[in-house]
Design a protein that fits this description.
alpha/beta
Length: 537
């Protein structure tokens, strides 16, 4: 198996059979110079390239044929290897006029082709496209693959050879989180029909609020960089503008040089809104160019292979994540004590069920909420300091601290809440350390420390990993209202004084979401525990 490969074929009809073979040999990135898709890529028995009014891609057939070839590649790879990053290198309309292209983003480990020898492959246009962007010795990386010529597939078979023109300036938009085959098809097709400038709007801010697991969406800078790198590989000689957008219009609402807006059927209504705004400003409407991101029934990937960005985010739940600038302990010595996992999250995030399951799986439990109750008991240092700070009005008839009285006082005033925390948190962690020593004495390998204040209290510097539970804000508000019999306003006030889900996630080694059915939450926990055992073994 190879991390990065290139596939060179001499005909679009050979591409799909060869792709299936290459996908079994390459795990990361696969470069494919766009092969000739013209004379044999026909529909209705006549080549679309025979029409002199149809734009061509300099020896690669009509623009229509090239886009069909690109589409079929991504439909096929979604079925056979959906996680493989396929990048189709596009030709220049006038190779003699284009500037020298930059190197590829990834160095090639293997050159795959059905050509019988390296001398034969050197004569192909695809190899020449590749060789000028990969400076390593490709001859030493050449590997012949067997492709049955009788299994050739015409990417254009049965499709209407519609007239398809190119545009000087083209725009498209999307979230582009965890770039997948739908994104790659959209970006590659848009590049194919663009002659001068491509503008990509990357959704941010309010455009993300309705997304599934928005807390797990990568930062807009990371997503912009991923789009730029992909486009640099695919068609480097067109001008690229990749910008963050916070509304459906972006620069297309005022850019007078823009000609075409590329959309999918799901985003076509957004294109209509853009043109309404342009008409209002006296600008000509854009050509709305719609790309089907899924094929016919026989072309569609099976459900287990069809991945969207939200699917990919869901698949990361329960999995280990590296955290930049982590405060956690970097070393673990079993002889000095158990491996310490801190479980945290906001109010009503559902971490109690996760905590219970981890205990069943074999972790030693340390419930910091219970330890907090202990810290409030009469006779403790914290008890005396709390009364001194907040007065005897917070005491019950029995002399205990009435937390239902104290709660509204501190939750409505951040300064008072901070003062309470400064009194109680050190005592809670002292009690937690006693529990950790107990776990070590009893031979436990892992401690799970359930602590809502884990990060705010700075306790992450005492543990090895942070595990976080999250849930959507609307769901959390409903849970608080039902659980604590509060009004919606009071529930939101409780939420306002705590960290956001995004802040929790930014510091989490493992993330759980409890917004779906309980069995799905428990499957995330089982995954996290299994991976933890593997890390510790």
């Amino acid at each position: 198996m190879y991390r990065t490969g290139a596939l060179v074929v001499d005909s679009g009809r050979l591409l799909l059979p060869a792709l299936a073979t290459a996908a079994r040999m390459v795990t990361g990135v696969l470069y494919i110079p766009l092969p000739p898709c013209g004379s044999k890529c026909t529909a209705g028995g006549q080549s679309a390239a025979a029409d002199p009014t149809t734009p061509t891609t300099e020896g690669h057939g009509s623009l229509f044929e090239a886009t069909q070839c690109v589409k079929q590649v991504y439909f096929q790879i979604s079925k056979v290897s959906p996680l493989l990053d396929v990048r189709i290198l596009l030709p220049h309309l006038s190779p003699s006029l284009r500037p020298s292209p930059p190197p590829l983003q990834h160095s090639i480990d293997v050159l795959l082709s059905p050509f019988s020898s390296f001398q034969d492959i050197q004569k192909s246009a695809g190899y020449q496209m590749l060789a000028e962007r990969e400076k390593s010795n490709l001859e030493s990386k050449f590997q012949k693959i067997e492709v049955d010529r009788e299994s050739e597939v015409d990417p254009c078979a049965g499709r209407d050879p519609s007239f398809l023109r190119s545009y000087s300036d083209t725009a498209l938009g999307g979230t582009f989180d965890n770039i997948h085959n739908g994104h790659r098809l959209l970006l590659t097709h848009s590049s194919l029909i663009t002659d001068r400038r491509i503008l990509v709007g990357v959704a941010d801010g309010p455009l993300l609020t309705s997304k599934i697991l928005p807390e797990l969406i990568k930062s807009v800078d990371v997503r912009i960089s991923a789009v730029e790198r992909f486009l640099s590989d695919v068609k480097p000689w067109i001008k690229r503008e990749v910008v963050a957008i916070t509304d459906v219009y972006g620069p297309t609402a005022w850019d007078s040089s823009m000609e075409c807006l590329v959309v999918s059927p799901d985003t076509a209504r957004g294109g209509e809104k853009v043109n309404q705004e342009r008409r209002r400003k006296g600008l000509p409407p854009l050509v709305i160019h719609t790309i089907e991101l899924v094929g016919s029934d026989e072309e569609k990937p099976s459900p287990e292979h069809k991945l969207s960005s939200s699917d990919i985010r869901r698949n990361t739940l329960g999995g280990y994540r590296k955290v930049e600038d982590s405060h956690c302990l970097s070393e673990y010595n079993p002889s000095q004590g158990p491996y310490l996992i801190g479980l945290t999250g906001g109010i009503a995030c559902g971490k109690s069920s996760i905590f219970s399951r981890l205990i069943e799986l074999g972790a030693f439990p340390i419930d910091c909420d219970k330890l907090g109750h202990t810290a409030y008991l009469p006779g403790t240092t914290a008890y005396s300091k709390i009364i001194e700070e907040f007065g005897e009005g917070i005491l019950s008839e029995t002399g205990d601290i009435n937390r239902k009285v104290l709660g509204p006082i501190v939750f409505s005033d951040k300064a008072k809440l901070q003062r309470l925390n400064e009194i109680v948190w050190p005592e809670i962690w002292r009690l937690a350390e006693e529990k950790i020593r107990q776990a070590h004495a009893e031979g436990y390998r892992v401690c799970i420390i359930d602590a809502a204040v884990l990060l705010k209290a700075g306790w992450d510097k005492y543990i090895h990993e942070v595990w976080v539970a999250i849930a959507p804000e609307k769901e959390v508000v409903c849970r608080i209202i039902e659980r604590d019999n509060l009004t919606e306003e009071a529930a939101k006030k409780r939420m306002a004084v705590q960290m956001s889900s995004a802040e929790y996630v930014s510091r989490a080694n493992v993330v759980f979401s409890t917004q779906w059915e309980p069995d799905y939450t428990q499957s995330q926990v089982a995954k996290a525990w299994k991976e933890l055992q593997e890390r510790l073994s």
